[in-house]
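Need tokens for this chain, all 174 residues.
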Amino acid sequence: MKLYRFSPIKNQQQLEKAIEHVHEACYKLCHMALDAYLPIAGNIGIFCHYDDEYEKLTALREQMTDSTIHFNKKYFKLHEPIVIAAHGKIPAATYEYLYVRQPDPYRAQVGDVDFVMRPDKYKELKNLLRSGTAINAARLYSGSSGLDMVELYDPDIDALGYLTTSTMTDKIAD
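Here are the structure tokens for all 174 residues:
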């Protein structure tokens, strides 16, 4: 039985299929939680599950990105944006930054996407979650990075979404 849907990703074509899957899955999560499709922050992450996969995807990422333009040496600016067309109700999107995550035995997801929410709506959502209000497919992010985000998740979807109030370009400009 294969535990991970795409891993190990071995080449550009497999990476592109994983990116398309993460795009669609994260937009589904966004709609599940908010009954709306938000704009993306401009970044997409692909999660590795094997050490050799991480080495191959890091080499691919190095070819695809400008290593001098990044956020936290994690999200790197793509030479050519990844453009995904609309599919059914799933909106089109253009990704300008790529993240390849090191293997993590506790995260089996394929990847993640950040969505941008208006600050007033974001604060309202966070306050609801803090007060204990259950919101389908949304929870306060409790990662160790200290980032202020809301995580979008569903056990039946192998991707994660995150809500933030700024785009990746805004974060790099700060």
